[in-house]
Amino acid sequence: MSLAQLGRSWRAEAAQRMPEARGDLRELVGQPVFVPLYKLFTVYGKIFRLSFGPKSFVIISDPAYARQILLTNADKYSKGLLSEILEFVMGTGLIPADGEVWRMRRRAIVPALHKKYVANMIVPRQRRCVEALKVVNDTLDGLIAKCKVLVEEEDAEFVEEFLSEADPSILHFLIASGDQISSKQLRDDLMTMLVAGHETTAAVLTWTLYLLSQHPDKTALLQQE
């Protein structure tokens, strides 16, 4: 009993020494929770109490303290209220579980988060990006294969001013140069030029239209032309 009373006394004194922020639940509505927490961190520092009415939470924003709680002395802490709330939904799943149950489930679940499994999930936007990139890659690979056949068939001597009448392209020039370059490297070079060409062209057109909007007399000349 005396040890329990001493512990309560120590916690009360520690709570008084710890900076306290009084929270308003309305601040959490309509924005990610880390936004108001970061603002409080800039005022109160790495450890502070955050009180909402009768409830009080200790907010930790320091890697060393987090390691102490989550790893070094994990057996000294409980997930408490969070575990009680989530147990109804998740039972003894990884998030609400404590102690040995948590360790066992973590060892079982982590391999399922391997990159090759995660790569097969993702969200619709990412899936569309991957599908679009496959279209571009397949197109470039097809162009490279076709161009290699053309270069082999024409059997022309390569000079610095080389230009193929059948296919006057940068790709044809690169293959005809005779450099021992892989199809993948050619694809990477073409992708670089494709992206760079789009971006620079877009920038030029954007500024051209902007400047024309600032100079109506020049716009009129352009319209006449």
Question: What would your notes on this structure say?
Answer:
By secondary structure, the chain is mainly alpha-helical. It has a domain at 1-77. It contains ten helices and three strands. The chain has helices spanning 2-17, 34-44, 63-72, 80-90, 99-109, 115-118, 124-154, 170-176, 183-214, 216-224, and strands at 20-22, 47-52, 55-60. A three-stranded mixed β-sheet has the order 1-2-3, covered by helices on one side. α7 (124-154) packs across α8 and α7 crosses α9. The longest helix has 32 residues, at 183-214. The protein is elongated, with a radius of gyration of 32 Å. The protein starts with a helix and ends with a helix. The model has no long low-confidence stretch (mean pLDDT 79). This is Protein LUTEIN DEFICIENT 5, chloroplastic. InterPro entries: Cyt_P450, Cyt_P450_E_grp-I, Cyt_P450_sf, Cytochrome_P450_Monoox.
Helix/strand layout:
Elements lengths: L1 H16 L2 E3 L11 H11 L2 E6 L2 E6 L2 H10 L7 H11 L8 H11 L5 H4 L5 H31 L15 H7 L6 H32 L1 H9 L1
Helix pairs in contact: 7-8, 7-9
List keywords for this structure.
single chain, mainly alpha, 225 residues, elongated, 10 helices, three-stranded mixed beta sheet, 63% helix
Query: Which whole number gives the mean pLDDT?
Result: 79
How far apart are the first and last residues' alpha carbons, in Å?
Answer: 96 Å
Radius of gyration: 32 Å
Helices and strands, in order, run as HEHEEHHHHHHHH
Helix content estimate? 55-70%
What's the number of extended β-strand segments?
3
Q: Numbering strands along the chain, what is their spatial order in the largest sheet?
A: 1-2-3
Alpha plus pi helix count: 10
Approximate shape: elongated
Structural class per helix/strand content?
mainly alpha
Question: What summary fits the major beta sheet?
Answer: 3 strands, mixed
Low-pLDDT segments, ≥5 res: none
Amount of beta strand: 5-15%
